[in-house]
Amino acid sequence: MPVHQPNQPPGLADKVRSTVRQFAGNEHHTLTSLRGAKADRVDVTTPHQIFTLGLDDLTSGAGLDRARAVGWRHLVEVDGKAVASAETSVAADGTHVPSHLNEGPFVNATAEAAAAAQTMPQLQTAGFEMRLLRIPALYFMALWMHSAAADLLVPLAPSPIGQEGQAIPAADALNELAQRARAASAPTGPGEPDTHAP
Questions:
Q1: Which of 112-116, 122-126, 175-179 has the lowest mean pLDDT?
Q2: What does each C-alpha distance from 101 to 17, 73, 78, 83, 137 come to in angstroms?
Q3: What does R_g of the chain's alpha carbons equal in angstroms?
Q4: Looking at the chain, which terminus has fewer C-beta neighbours within 10 angstroms, N or C?
């Protein structure tokens, strides 16, 4: 298989699955997708490690070597359909603990991109490991296809640089994101409207 999922910490999937199943059928839980679900129909799949980059990393021209591992992410499936994601964080003792669930737009985008990656021409060489790259300040998330020979990013919709679902060289994507980060932080000249204000 050209793209493989990494070996996650022992027992992590079971811990995440058990936690997620506790919310199944709970009418008071905020995740609507789990309210009517039966616990035995809920599973977690597609494990991938989460890495983050900050704006300072981007604007300084840093590459993926500066990305920091911050946890793991699984897709939460009900009857085989991805409905949410479950993330872990690193506790003080170094263990990974479930931290939060999410059912936003990146869930379906992740499922679709992970499936499409198996047939992308750029990824047909075996040895790519699937990761997740997150740049919170730019609302950017991408599947990071990592190998010893190359790093490709598959932006997840919605992406500030477009190219959703396409495998692009990581350096190209980071360069465009860096330009956006610099533009957003540039001071506004006298008499000019602040076009970057929220």
A1: 122-126
A2: 12, 10, 14, 10, 20
A3: 18
A4: C
Distances from the Cα of 4 to the Cαs of 40, 47, 114, 142, 188, in angstroms?
26, 10, 10, 16, 46
Phi first, then psi: give them for residue 137, nearest 5 degrees.
-65, -25
Sign for the CA dihedral angle at 151, 155, 159, 164 comes to: positive
Amino acid at 188: T
In a domain, 82, yes or no: yes
Torsion of CA 178, 183, 184, 190, to 10 degrees: 160
Q: How many domains is the chain built from?
A: 1
CB 16 within 8 A of CB 88: yes
Q: Of 10, 19, 81, 94, which Cα lies nearest the Cα of 47?
A: 10
Show the domain range for 87: 3-185
pLDDT digits (tens, 9 = 90+) for 77-119: 999 999 999 999 998 998 899 999 999 899 999 999 999 988 8
DSSP assignment string, 79-137:
TTEEEEEEEEEE-TTS-EEEEEEE-STHHHHHHHHHHHHTT-GGG-STTEEEEEEEEGG
